[in-house]
Amino acid sequence: MMSMLETSLKTQPNRPVTFIHAARSGRVHAFKELVAQLQQENSNLAVHTVYENPSEEDRGLSTFAKEGYIDLPWLQSVISSQSDAVYYFCGPEPFMKAINQSLKDLGIPEENRRFEFFGPKGDIA
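The chain above was modelled as a monomer; its predicted structure follows.
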């Protein structure tokens, strides 16, 4: 996902990009500093972070947008469901199923939903 993000920002600098990252907390948030740097350097990049169990430090730094899990109402509030937008997501199977269902519920066509599992291939349906 990071290489896709960096490539998109480099090759299409005017294209709006929304990057959502879910992690347990700031302690295990992969590429946190790099994404923050990319956000500072690219006005077309919107970053939203969800922490399942944020630490007191996370709360004090306000380093996340939502506590808990990504859910349909929150997702709907931060993404654009434009007909030409493409949605890429990756993660473990339960997460993938939930995100895929949310995107379906938002009316995102299957051909605009692209995904990859962490670990062995699973069933997204």
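The mean pLDDT is 91.
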